[in-house]
Amino acid sequence: xxxxxxxxxxxxxxxxxxxxxxxxxxxxxxxxxxxxxxxxxxxxxxxxxxxxxxxxxxxxxxxxxxxxxxxxxxxxxxxxxxxxxxxxxxxxxxxxxxxxxxxxxxxxxxxxxxxxxxxxxxxxxxxxxxxxxxxxxxxxxxxxxxxxxxxxxxxxxxxxxxxxxxxxxxxxxxxxxxx
Length: 179
Fold this sequence. Notes:
Blueprint: H1 6-10, H2 17-29, H3 31-48, H4 57-103, H5 106-140, H6 145-173
C-alpha cells in the first residue's frame, strides 16, 4: 500500500469506514507509521489535558487600545473621504452655476440661484437628518468602494453636463438662440 501524507491519515477528523480499515491494516504491518500514529495520539491526549490559560491583563489592555486606535484611524480615513467627496461636489456645483451663467438667459440664472438659496436656507434644518443618513450609509459601505462611487458620481454628472455644453456651443456657432 502506498503511504499517503501523514496529515491525511492522522489529522483528518472524518474518514470513511473503508479508509479507517485500510489504515488499521497498514498500521499492523508498518512500524514507522504505527510509531507516528501512536505519537500523534499521545500529542492529542496531552493537548486535551492542558490547562486553559487566561491572557495577562496587560495583553487585554494593549489589545483594547489597539482596537480603539484602529477604529479611530478608520473613522479619520472615512471622514477624509467624505471631505474629498464634499469638496468635489461643491466644485461641481460651482462649475454648474458658472456654466449656467455662461450659457443661459439671465432670468433662468436668477431662478436657479433662487433655488440654490432656498436649498441652502433649508439645509441647516435638515443637517441632522443628512448627517445621520450619511453616517449610517458610510458605515454600511466598505471603505474601498467610496473612491469608486465618487468617481462614478462625478462621471455621471460631468459627462451629461459636458455633452450638453458641447451641444449648446455647436448650436450657438450655427446661430441658434437660447431656448
